[in-house]
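The protein record now logged underneath.
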Amino acid sequence: MTNAHVVEGALAIEITDLAGSKIAAELIGIDRIVDIAVFRITNHIDLQSAVLGDSDMIAVGDWAIAIGNPLGLGTTVTMGIISAVGRDIPKPDGQGVFHDLIQTDAAINPGNSGGPLVDAHGRVIGINVAIARQAPAGIAIEGINFAIPINAVTEILSLLIREGKVTRAWLGVFIQELTPAMVDVVGVREGVVVVDIIPSSPAAKAGLRAGDIIVTVAGEPVRNVRELQQLIMFKPIGQTVLLEVIRNQATIHIEVILEKRPH
């Protein structure tokens, strides 16, 4: 595995092992949303697999070790800690947002992309993907680096291997978490607020409105934005799902027919 942006547009892919041998590889799956590419080694070779960890179990302050090939220097290892989890940042190319990233101060530089972020036991907890180098005011930044959680990768890995891509369902809404002030007004403690509706989307066709609070999807509780996204995106295209919604402090139920998320 590596990042999609590492291999996108490549005419050929080669892997170099620690001994310097070149190994031909074939791209078999790519997902630009998570920024993951999967390839298959075309010539049989005896390589040891990395052990995958559980990125849901990491905590701020845990050791983090980044491995990669920064600046083409060759295999490089840097160490730091987990600085934060659940970070959302704009993608460097301006096309969308990375969600739920791991933030670390383990040094990551150009060439680290696609390399593993591992814990103190050597288990892969993330895939290095992005760095922050300059604030909007032009101030240089150090020690703010990001990795895709490995659990987000394993969620889609079998689909990438089997189908070469990930097809996601969508509602077509802009959403946000409930704030403490909203809780006092609407009278519910858990749910996700619909901020806006995309025209002609499944949500628009079903009659969802800005200000609605989605509290369950097909009977499953929704506590935050990530839970709503996870409950929707991997459901079959064309499936009808029942949403429990709070509107003007009253509970209503809305059926939505899911459609394919546009890229």
